[in-house]
Amino acid sequence: MKINGVEIEDTFAEAFPIKVGRVLITAVTERWALSSAREATGFGTSVIGCPAEAGIECMVSGDETPDGRPGAYILVCNMSFKALEPSLLFRIGQCVLTAPTTAVFNGLPEAEQQFDSGKKLSFFGDGYQKQAELYGRNMWKIPIISGDFLMEQNIGAVNGVAGGNFYIMGQNQMAALTAAETAVDAIAKQKGTITPFPGGIVASGSKVGSKYKFLKASTNAAFCSSLREDGVCTMVEDVSAIYEIVINGISQEAVAKSMKVGIMAACQVPGVLRISAANFGGKLGPYQFKLQEILK
Amino acid sequence: MKINGVEIEDTFAEAFPIKVGRVLITAVTERWALSSAREATGFGTSVIGCPAEAGIECMVSGDETPDGRPGAYILVCNMSFKALEPSLLFRIGQCVLTAPTTAVFNGLPEAEQQFDSGKKLSFFGDGYQKQAELYGRNMWKIPIISGDFLMEQNIGAVNGVAGGNFYIMGQNQMAALTAAETAVDAIAKQKGTITPFPGGIVASGSKVGSKYKFLKASTNAAFCSSLREDGVCTMVEDVSAIYEIVINGISQEAVAKSMKVGIMAACQVPGVLRISAANFGGKLGPYQFKLQEILK
Amino acid sequence: MKINGVEIEDTFAEAFPIKVGRVLITAVTERWALSSAREATGFGTSVIGCPAEAGIECMVSGDETPDGRPGAYILVCNMSFKALEPSLLFRIGQCVLTAPTTAVFNGLPEAEQQFDSGKKLSFFGDGYQKQAELYGRNMWKIPIISGDFLMEQNIGAVNGVAGGNFYIMGQNQMAALTAAETAVDAIAKQKGTITPFPGGIVASGSKVGSKYKFLKASTNAAFCSSLREDGVCTMVEDVSAIYEIVINGISQEAVAKSMKVGIMAACQVPGVLRISAANFGGKLGPYQFKLQEILK
Amino acid sequence: MKINGVEIEDTFAEAFPIKVGRVLITAVTERWALSSAREATGFGTSVIGCPAEAGIECMVSGDETPDGRPGAYILVCNMSFKALEPSLLFRIGQCVLTAPTTAVFNGLPEAEQQFDSGKKLSFFGDGYQKQAELYGRNMWKIPIISGDFLMEQNIGAVNGVAGGNFYIMGQNQMAALTAAETAVDAIAKQKGTITPFPGGIVASGSKVGSKYKFLKASTNAAFCSSLREDGVCTMVEDVSAIYEIVINGISQEAVAKSMKVGIMAACQVPGVLRISAANFGGKLGPYQFKLQEILK
After folding, report:
1. What is the pTM of this model?
2. Is there a contact between B55 and B196 (Cβ–Cβ < 8 Å)?
3. Total of domains in chain C
4. How far apart are the first and last CA of chain C?
């Protein structure tokens, strides 16, 4: 299968279950919503070494938010609901409550699992916090030095998917990187998914396990062109650099859609030669996203 | 004391000791250096609820970096060297090693305290990592799917200062916020300091302690204009909103300099009425930065 | 009439007819589409002193463009079709043909008025240009040093509207400015309109005419708070600063819609007191946009 | 000669004399200074089809500006002082006077040639303008609806240089483009020069003249890789895409310095193969910048 001359390999992305909380941050301008969302989702690339996986799902205009202000949806992901609750609490408390002009709304009000993060954070008001029905939501009003901070009582979470992915293989590093950038931009407009790595991109795609017992993941040596002379790299000759896009989402459908949109975008960039994906014989997880099926 | 018509209150900022690691991230362009630096310093506003305090110190051109590429200095702070080491390791490993085109250099090669973070991360190479003298530095070369990742063997750290601060008091929220933005921009050009909160700004300045025993910090109610009718707010009448700038740095001198530069910038913004600072009778820490002395 | 506590004055915006050409610029990434679009629409605030009025209408994803790449729609406006043709030709030739990775498509293929700008620019190919049916469009392929530049044969234009406007009146400058920023952001997502002034905002709203015969427009003194003591300023007491949003569009409907969206956004910003609009007894033009009707 | 493995061709850039005006725009924040500077320097790539050549020279902090606010230096260039004067007047009047929170200062107060642009623009005040000695400068204070606009009486201009240039030759388009981006970033920190094309980059490097008599410039066919099969392209085999950086400046020294800084930056990008420059046997102008001498 080829798209715009780019070979789509007959393979699949392997992914695993994760719990996903969804938060809507609004602010006086898009810039300030983005500023808070960035801080709240930072240090959140992989649960291997970060306290959570997190990213900005998409930006929304005031006509899509309860308070009529521009906003950012963020997703925060962890391996269990028990681990997710403090991730939400601390990321919102330390990075959104503290950010200029923000308010917080439940991004998944229909979800079965709800955390009372708003109630818990309201204690920061030191007794001056008040509950109020606002915008049809159950809100807390917490006096802060810049005004009042508003936060909804609950934040919802669902069973989601982590590790959806594809590999962009390029003639050289800059071709693959520019394709990765435009793929991330395209995915950023989709609902329900994030690309949690820096700038949405993984430079150092890994395999499950390592020759070192203390490491859960290590470099995917078979795809490292600098190991070609060692015979370790088994990639086709003309590819010299790969970037990986990793996608988490609130459902398999959302992840599949973002994979499609991202791959289509990447295939428009000159110097991109192939699209592949990472899988590990089930060692990573039960979900399989077959590239050629997704792209039909 | 007045600057440009803005009253500088006769008070001081109270701050506390912290351990500070300094990392230079370089990349193929400024944008990619910034992208990695943002991810690596996210979820890093306050050790009260974040695993570390972190921020971007400043951006540098290729003529100031070992590999001739543009870069970003970041500071990562924690309460002990023991706590700082994993903070550096995980933030670099998860957010810089994984980021497109980055390399990592020791930002404090002269410091007494050195962590062998580069050596530890090199195991990601799964046996294919190699040590090399490059740019006059002791580097590790780790094969990754996008090329090779280069990282210096050691990252240095020093005894620094956290919690340097000032309050920007405005006629209204947008005046105080714009002043906070321009203050943060000015501080961003200084060496040796960070403003770790979202966009560099604290919307919810806190006091030490709370009426709730389980809370270490709570809203600084005496400065909340929405509590004026309750008699809790003791602020002068004309001030209706405050933003706080919190500054961490590698030395008292660096923090004092950034406080000065930030206050001078804030005082240029129309609608700013007063500059003050937060202190807690020594409950926060031993350092005192007197505003009027700093500004002399 | 009040929106979110902000008084909407019972007045109208006066606007005038203008000719509007619409161009779709695509590029390898959003960033590069934006970079070209900015250059092409610069020095384009008002026909009083600029060679055209121009702005970025909106950004679009690859799924909305003929070549599947991200893009920017721009509008270029002039007082006659005769004046508009060279404006399009030179702005595209000097600022899009010259920009990295761009292609140009007709933004109004259904319009009656069509200019053969693509054919004219193709001569830059010095005899090596070629015509080709691509993406279902009649395209020119011009060899350039970075690859091939693709441009559609025709660019369409319509009878549009210039000078749609509203005034954001604030307690102080920063409140009005932040409201102007968020209004511009909201309008930027609408189709068919631009806000041609710097950052989409007019700091120096003018009246038609002047005491100096050589000036077509001069400061709207009745709205200058610094002339209050002179008795010239007739504004209500509590307003101390105003920013104006000027909107051009391909139709009256598009302008009215963007005025509505912008006003709604501005009214969410604390410190905004009133919304008004500029009109000149018909001296500017025949179109009237009544604020309270638009907002119904 | 090689830099970081990149061949520096033994050739020179040909450039021509131009008149250069220099303007300092300050604003309440860097963002607003930049916003105005972008509008004021747009549609300013080449005098072949633009009313002037213009660009942002560099951004400066409040400690480098008369009013203590952040600022942007811009350069506006035209073929004669007579043509330059209205370029300055209209670009400042339409794009800086109209922009939020800006003030304008003379960027070349020591130059022999001075234009009284500030005096001329002050008439916009419709009789309410006032002259005042402020910040040690001779300023005009013009009441506008957002406050007062301040502008210095004079703007200075000098005999400068246009068309300094170099070619970045890449294995493919994205390698050359990324190198062009990082070169432009590096030059943006230099004083006294601009890169007037979109994003600082020329995608469509031209030669002087054309087979069509009505064209002053046409595609530099000998460097177009898509004309290789026609035998027109004489470039070395491995190069498939070129981007050109064009530099204007206030002196030959400034242009030479920026060429050096830009080339050094470009040579750090993987996939860059060669650096060359454009010259036309003196048909363009009298200045010659020899690459290998500049880089010594």
Report:
1. 0.98
2. yes
3. 2
4. 10
